[in-house]
Input
Amino acid sequence: MFKDINMVNSRIAVAMGTILLVISLNYLMYLYRVTKLSPTLEDKLSIGRQARPSIGNKLHGMQRASYILNAKVEWFKPRLQSVSVLNSVRFESNAATSLYNSKTSRSQLLVQEHIAKGNPTNSQVINSVLLNQKVAISQKELDELLSLPSVKFDLPFSDETYPSLLALIRKPHSKCSNTGVYIFTHKSTGNKYVGSSNDLARRFKQYFDKHLLFANKSYGLLMPLINQEGLKAFNLEVIVVSSTYPKYSHCFLEQYFLLDKSFNLNTQRIVNFRVNQGLKVFLYDLDCKTLYYSSNSLNAFCADLGIHSSSYRKCISSGVPYLGLFVISNNLIEDAVPANLTESEVGELLAKRRKENLDKQTVDLGKVIEVFDKDTNERKTYPSTYKVAYRLGTTRTTIRSYINNGKAYKNRYYLKFTDSNK
Output
């Protein structure tokens, strides 16, 4: 009996030894094949260039993994080459690795590296940053823009300096308001902000008219600083770009300044040229007999008229009139007569209609809201979140959020729902 047990154990030991020997030999063969398959990067890339192996091929798992990896490398190489062609400064450090492993855009990486290195900005650098927007400028055109004269003003404007500004940019509501670039410089720190507009009169009205001052004063870095210290803390520099210059010249000039590290009050370092050709947008009256506005860019349409993109989509998909008074369409109606209004005049018309719509809002559109102003110790009630949002220059979502958490909006206004209209 014991002999039988010993015999069984002996056979088991022999079988286990045989299995271990086979596994060891297979592992050694595996190491040999891996070493032979990809001894150099060049051999790896050659695998990536081969046709994709079919399911029936019995390639080893390591070879399949090498195929996938190097196919990605081959896909990425020509894209890096296309970037370097446009660059006079080679952004080669770790931009490619960062781009491959993060969600940061190529343009943002180029801007960050260029500003960090402090290299001179030329047309090739600008064209590289704006590659995705399919716009470009020559060095000769850039030099001409940089030679344009600039006019400096000490803020706030006085009775003597304000007429000089109007002579430079034209009066608000003018049909020939000038295009250009403007620079705010913070006197005590030297920090700068650059912007541009195809209607400088309208843009400056938003800065200097207290009733039209940008609604969200807490946005970015410039507006909170103006709100806190006033315009007297800044100087203003204006560069007018004549209409004889090519389209988007003012945007190229703004992009040039944005690549300078001293413009650190700008939170966005890449100009949006709003180039969206092929999608025309039109604004008509209800009968589509009057054409108020047209644009080749949806982004420009929304920005110039203050219309949210969701409102545009709703009007296009459902056919519902905007504000109940205007028709937004992608189709040109040849019988419609142009209203002969400037962009600023159309924008003011829409703003007036929006205010009238808010005034018509009834209590059943929302609960009555009480607003306590701790600075003035006043209490006021509003029939809906629409009215409160409009009064405080924010959104209904923000109003509801501050009501729910009980905190003071802008550290000043306490909001709460109330049961009655006082």
In short: The two ends are 104 Å apart (CA to CA). Confidence is low (pLDDT under 50) at residues 36-62, 65-69, 75-103. Residues 281-358 form one domain. The longest strand covers residues 179-186.
